[in-house]
Write a structure and sequence with these properties.
528 residues, 18 helices, alpha/beta, globular, single chain
Length: 528
């Protein structure tokens, strides 16, 4: 069995720890949440000096012993509760690729035919043995308090056409025989086609269905027999097919013609609520068919230069782009949760810490993470341009790139500002950091005095802000980006380097992307 039900006392403490802040605020001070975060972070940086720092905080007028006792009483009380059911009904676990023919807003272009979903690494000798903490399953609670098993996903992507061939059996065996435990399968693909004969009015009326998979129900049943976690990938706003049958749903140029990106592909208008309903009707049917999770890809605006001349049918600013994507995420989360499913979304790796890229594509990393169960930044090294994060050729250093990007994710989700523009670190005076020497060492930003502000281990230990729901589950690169100047071939070492970077950044889940579904088998650990 890939995973089994269990109960972990530490998990109970973790779930309740987020909710200790509220009662502590009442007892101590309105700003106690920030003080608690500050105190915990000081502990990471210097446990021996933690008491001295606390003495300088607003806690200085309180007895340290009294605070300790109150915290222990509250912890014991909460962990002693027979059942804790969050308002959402999906536990406190936090929360998927938009691979690009377009490319990132400022990085390299992606693998042809990839989704919107990057990094480089050092050898095992330098990074030590590969380690990962924790169990392979998570235990959020259901709406009625029943246990809901969610595996810590280690997955691969599968296209609709591949799922409908005999080669799918090989991929199922690959998952069954290795550390893998999940498959992300196209349901609505990059072309706008639904990959099987989905019997719902929205698909039947549009004619979007195409029978790549002849018997989806039987395929899903086979996967379930092997305890494979199933994620339905739904490409959201890039949809060249519907441009032909529902042109009124598409983004238009100001002259009335349908907008098409430099690849000649049309995009749906995110401001059109009929588009939302169409996407969620497909999502709900996928859940009814047997998928465990809905993953929205291309949940963004096109990065094409022509977007400056489009007409959305209303006055729109860059800020509006982010807001409408957030509104869609909220609505989609409500619908998916009501249908009993889990929701995730894929985002550009650049949007983790670059406000410039967030505004261009409409993806606000922090705000989206407040509503999703999982968020999947595409940290493919090949998608980052020269000297992003001060790495001359990110594709040639997978470990370093993935680690740096995910440590940045840890910081921003913990409420610590990170100042970059499209992956280029910015100094305090607003100028770019030196290219050759940079102002970073192995992902550790340097203060003006040359001392590290935070060590990687400290950043990896950060907990997200209390209103962050999404767990981070990055997409990793399992392909050679031959179009990138200075690229390296990707094989076993590069795959393991990226996976180790995920663990070293304090995360536990990942998904591999290869547009042709040809995965590096010797880069995967065998099932024990």
């Amino acid at each position: 069995m890939k995973f089994m039900k269990f109960m972990d006392t530490r998990g109970c403490l973790k779930n309740h720890s987020y909710h200790l802040h509220a009662p502590l605020c009442v007892i101590f001070a309105p700003n106690s949440v920030n003080v608690a975060r500050y105190a915990s972070f000081i502990w990471y940086k210097s446990p021996t000096n933690c008491d001295a720092h606390l003495a300088e905080s607003i806690f200085q007028t309180r007895s340290r012993a009294c605070i300790f006792c109150l915290c222990m009483i509250l912890t014991a009380f909460l962990c002693g509760c027979s059942t804790f059911v969050p308002a959402s009904g999906y536990g406190t676990e936090k929360a998927a690729p938009d691979s690009v023919a377009e490319g990132t807003a400022s990085g390299n272009e992606g693998q042809g035919g990839m989704a919107d979903a990057g990094q480089s690494g050092t050898g095992e000798g330098e990074n030590g043995s590969e380690t990962q903490n924790g169990s392979d399953t998570e235990m959020p609670e259901g709406q009625a308090g029943e246990e809901v098993v969610r595996p810590k996903v280690k997955g691969i992507f599968v296209t609709g056409p591949m799922a409908g061939t005999d080669n799918m059996e090989h991929l199922i065996e690959l998952v069954d025989d290795t550390e893998l435990n999940a498959i992300v399968m196209d349901i609505k693909n990059d072309e706008g086609r639904v990959v099987y004969d989905m019997q719902i009015p929205a698909v039947s009326e549009s004619g979007a269905g195409i029978r790549y998979v002849q018997d989806m129900e039987s395929l899903l049943a086979e996967c379930k027999e092997k305890d494979i976690y199933l994620i339905a990938r739904i490409v959201a706003f890039k949809d060249p097919f519907l441009a032909e049958v529902k042109p009124e749903w598409c983004i238009h140029n100001k002259d009335g013609s349908i907008f098409k990106d430099k690849g000649g592909l049309a995009w749906l208008n995110p401001y059109n609520r009929e588009v939302w309903e169409y996407l969620l009707d497909i999502a709900e049917e996928a859940l009814r068919m047997g998928f465990d999770e809905i993953q929205f890809d291309y949940i963004r605006f096109s990065t094409d230069d022509g977007m400056k001349d489009v007409d959305f049918g209303q006055t729109v600013t860059e800020g509006d782009r982010q807001q409408v994507i957030i509104d869609f995420v909220k609505y989609a989360s409500e619908r998916v949760h009501k249908a009993g499913g889990v929701i995730s979304a894929d985002v550009y790796g650049m949007v983790i810490d670059s406000e410039v890229d967030q505004k261009i594509v409409g993806q606000d990393y922090v705000e989206m993470s407040k509503h999703l169960d999982y968020i999947s930044p595409m940290v493919y090294p090949s998608h980052y341009g020269p000297y992003n994060y001060n790495i001359p050729v990110p594709d040639a250093e997978p470990y370093r790139l993935v680690l740096t990007a995910l440590l940045s994710s840890k910081k921003v989700l913990a409420g610590i500002p990170v100042n970059t523009v499209s992956g280029n670190l910015i100094a305090g005076d607003g100028t770019s950091r030196d290219r050759e020497t940079g102002n970073s060492i192995s992902g550790n930003t340097l203060a003006k005095n040359g001392e590290p502000e935070f060590w990687a281990e400290e950043i990896a230990s950060l907990e997200p802000m209390s209103d962050i729901r999404a767990k981070v589950r990055p997409w990793l690169q399992d392909f050679t980006a031959s179009w990138v100047a200075g690229h390296i071939p990707y094989g076993k070492k590069e795959i393991r380097d990226q996976i180790q970077a995920v663990y070293d950044a304090g995360y536990e889940e990942w998904i591999l992307w290869n547009a042709s579904n040809k995965y590096t088998e010797d880069g995967l650990l065998k099932e024990e």
